[in-house]
UniProtKB/TrEMBL annotation:
Designated name of the protein: NADP-dependent oxidoreductase domain-containing protein
Entry GO terms, CC: cytosol
One Pfam family cited in the UniProt record for this chain: Aldo_ket_red
Similarity field: Belongs to the aldo/keto reductase family. Aldo/keto reductase 2 subfamily.
Entry keyword annotation includes Oxidoreductase: yes
């Protein structure tokens, strides 16, 4: 039986970065829609539409997809749903960059003007819409000058095919370069960064998220449960065998015998899980709800992207709203999940512990105070 949705538990709406558009603070990611590279647990069209409808019941208005999800299958499924809905109620985000038909077309990849303009037209056709609200560069493309990419995205805004520009999976220095180049050229601004971020993947706090805070970009965390690790189903010292994470572990083991992905979950990762489980028990919540709630209470985050295979998983994830972690619990999770502090960060932070001067408007020092505390520097 589906969980009863109270007014208090419905998703609130927040501004997406410094833009004037409001989105639900939990985004429905759709990589699980349609057949995709042989992955288990993918949703067919009917199941996907049920998930979207239930997400809307929770108050959700933000759907995230990409052209490469199932090589267009995900966008097609969303498009068939969207054509029966009032378009102005929903925020639709998609992405381009990945190879779509490399066997037949060597230029069907990257962030060139040619590939971007071709990609957006095909995405709009699959999505049954005249525009997408957020168009994101899925990955970096070292084969195309950043000016070409940024001017093309700006042209698409001016043409009305996209409303806002976002990025995904970017290093700190490149993000800064892209933002400053956009300013220098007088182009429409970048408003968001979609980045892997969770209790066991916090590396982006050190550089990319500092740029986001300084420039007003909203962060859209993907894989908030680290591929299923933060569900609590993976046990210390044991290779996962069930569900998607079991499939990933099996395939990674076959592909990389010396360093399978599942072995990246070390003792520190399980220490994080132990703390999350204790906090979840204290609140009568699930571990996934605690992991998502931790992200929702980070000031750089606009909306957390979830991916689900069932209505039960959706209801559980959406239950991250309507309650809060205490300041002490946030600190506990920050402390146990703090990433190693390598050079030059250890030197930068330790040399500035007594040099915090609000009047100097030194953004970097002020904005890293919580991270410095968590890292004990």
């Amino acid at each position: 039986m589906a969980a009863k949705i109270s007014k208090e538990s419905k998703t609130p709406y927040v501004f997406l970065g410094r833009s004037g558009v409001k989105v639900s603070n939990i985004t429905l990611g759709t990589v699980t829609f349609g057949e995709h590279q042989g992955r288990p647990g993918q949703s067919d069209e009917d199941a996907a539409h049920q998930i979207i409808n239930r997400y809307v019941e929770w108050g959700g208005n933000f759907l995230d997809t990409a052209d490469m999800y199932g090589l267009g299958n995900s966008e097609t499924i969303i498009g068939k749903w969207l054509e029966t809905q009032p378009r102005d109620k929903y925020i639709i985000a998609t992405k381009c960059r990945c190879g779509m038909d490399l066997e037949n077309n060597v230029n069907s990849v990257g962030l060139s003007r040619r590939h971007i303009t071709e990609s957006i037209d095909k995405s709009l056709q699959r999505l049954h819409t005249d525009f997408v609200d957020l168009y994101q560069a899925h990955h970096v493309d070292d084969g195309t000058p950043v000016e070409e990419t940024l001017r093309t995205l700006d042209d698409l805004v001016r043409a009305g095919k996209i409303r806002y520009i976002g990025l995904s999976n970017v290093t700190g220095w490149r993000l800064s370069l892209l933002v400053e180049t956009t300013k220098h050229l007088g182009l429409n601004p970048i408003i968001s960064l979609q980045q892997q971020y969770s209790l066991v993947s916090r590396e982006s706090e050190l550089e990319p998220f500092q740029v986001c805070k300084a420039q007003g970009l909203g962060v859209l965390p993907w894989s908030p449960l680290k591929g299923g690790f933060l569900t609590g189903k993976v046990k210390r010292g044991l290779k996962p065998t069930e569900g998607r994470i079991g499939w990933v572990a099996d395939n990674e083991t076959k592909a990389k015998e010396n360093a399978p992905l599942w072995k990246s979950f070390d003792d520190k990762s399980f220490d994080v899980l132990d703390v999350a489980e204790a906090i979840a028990k204290n609140h009568s919540k699930s571990v996934p709800q605690v992991a998502i709630r931790w992200l929702l209470q980070k000031d750089v985050v606009s909306s957390v992207i979830i991916g689900v295979r069932t209505l039960a998983q959706l209801d559980d994830n959406m239950g991250a709203n309507g309650w809060s972690l205490t300041q002490q619990e946030m600190q506990q999770l920050d402390d146990v999940s703090a990433p190693p502090l390598a050079y030059p960060y250890n030197m930068v932070f330790s040399n500035n512990t007594d040099r915090v001067n609000p009047a100097a408007n030194n953004f970097y020092v002020k904005s890293t105070s919580n991270l410095k505390s968590a890292l004990n520097v």
